[in-house]
Structure to design on (139 residues):
């Protein structure tokens, strides 16, 4: 029999582009549902945010934001023009940073590498509050 547990967490990202490490909140969710082996899905139901699995704390998160600024400049080139200047780039972001990630769970823990963290990536300064859906599927 397949079982699924799901919850939504609210993340306050503020008014500047940011990378928010969700790994500890994900671990708490997996403990709360008494996860064993299965699959974790992390989903951001927003048109201007994504989920990345990267190293944090050693500058990689800052490097990611710098690369996104180079790749998707916040200027007037975008046809999507509501919101703050350059907001159209935020709507292109999910084509580069997917709005979801799936991670194996083994023994109740996300099977991440030593330096990997699961992060919310948000370049949209117009939306300071985000929701992230965590779903654990056990089989």
């Amino acid at each position: 029999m397949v079982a699924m547990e799901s919850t939504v967490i609210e993340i306050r990202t503020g008014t500047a582009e940011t990378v928010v490490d969700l790994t500890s909140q994900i671990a708490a969710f997996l403990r709360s549902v008494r996860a064993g082996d299965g699959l974790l899905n992390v989903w951001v139901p927003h048109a201007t945010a994504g989920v990345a699995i990267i190293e944090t704390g050693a500058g990689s998160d800052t490097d990611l934001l710098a690369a996104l600024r180079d790749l998707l400049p916040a200027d007037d080139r975008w046809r999507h023009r509501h919101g703050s200047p350059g907001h159209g780039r935020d709507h292109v972001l999910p084509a580069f940073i997917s709005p979801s990630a799936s991670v194996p769970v083994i023994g109740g823990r996300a099977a991440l590498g030593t330096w990997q963290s699961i992060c919310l990536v948000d370049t949209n300064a117009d939306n300071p509050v985000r929701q992230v859906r965590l779903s654990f599927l056990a089989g």
